[in-house]
Amino acid sequence: MVNTEYFSGAYADFSRAAMSGDALCLRADNLACVRGLRVVFADLNFAVAAGGILHVSGANGAGKTSLLRMICGLLAPAAGHISLSGNTALARQSHYLGHADGLKNTLTPRETMIYESRLMAAHEACAPEDLLAHIGLAKQADQRVGTLSAGQRRRLALSRLLAAPRPIWLMDEPYTALDTAGRDLVDTLMRCHAEAGGMVVLAAHEAVPLADAQLVLDA
Amino acid sequence: MTGRPIAMWPILRALFARELRLVLRGGHLLPVLAFVFICVMLMPFGLGPELSLLQRLAPGLLWVIMLMAVLLSLDRMFQADFEDGGLDQLLLLPIALEGAVIAKICAHFVGILLPVLAAIPLAGLLLNIHPDAVLPVLATLLAGAPALVMLGAIGAALAVGVRRAGLLTVLIVTPLYVPVLVFGAGGLARALAAPGMLDVGALGVLGLISMASLFLAPPAIAAALRAGLR
To answer: In this structure, which topology does domain A4-217 adopt according to CATH?
Structure first.
């Protein structure tokens, strides 16, 4: 069972301390995405203020994943620009949780968390053991990632968001493979992150009651 | 965010440690070592059992085997990261992609190529090279190995995202390997002709090529990886 109190307590304090400062605002102006000869979307404008959760929806191929990848700089926009309070280099301000989780099958969850916090230069990182316990993977801490179920892998991928505080969370279908407790965990994480002053942009086909804005992309 | 300066070395050390662990646990070393010894053991069947002939051909054979072993080991260097989303995460690290590339290649070098480098002089003994020549063989290979791995990594990065990229990597990299092969095999032949002596000129050229590739290859690899992701 997931201990959600941890995320509304320890994580929020840790994240709020790390993100303290001027209120941030993520803005996209006249954004366009072209794949091959197809214009996926054009003239896209939106803004997400600190504490905001933006739900991106749309049919398959509408450009949801492309939009998330553009925000963190993994994909260059065909036109327009994205900025966080005027800063256009967002790669190091973002956590990206994509379809492919980037987890290594031959490492254990404990090793994964230790490396993630070191790689992200997390000076104020939560202890990996605590995080794994609270995310519901304490028993699997020393098991190879390759032997975890799809849902457990997703939980581990989610816990990487907490390895280091970054203001922008980009989550592509975060509920995939998760049970009810796992879905509650995603909601708790997003709520705590937003309350701590961060912002979330998530692409999902299902309704997201937590979201305070929705962006529908046409295919 | 806090605006605290990012210390690069701890991140590079952590990345190197993680990659080394992945290389060692991935079981990539054994097939490469097996390839080296199988090649050497098959040579007398193809070339004939005449020891003087094997000794004469040993420099070229050892270098070609080394080169093929490097290519074999590079096959999945970036492909696995591309497929599992690890490459996305590397781009989001708080250091330049070039630094992450260097850490990955260093781990690959230590985890796979150093054992192969140690094995090749032993394989050379099976080709009847003089025991006194083991050190020159090792020195020559060591001088050229960084160039082989760096140039090979450029090919692996250019082929990232391509299915069955192994063949494409070989086609891209083979022409780049020619100067290293020429100076490596030539220097080794001269060293073996006078056991215990080193061909300093060839070592110097190999060292220069390696140094140049150490500086020039990482930006090229990083650019190829970025292009592969888009």
So the answer is: Rossmann fold (3.40.50)
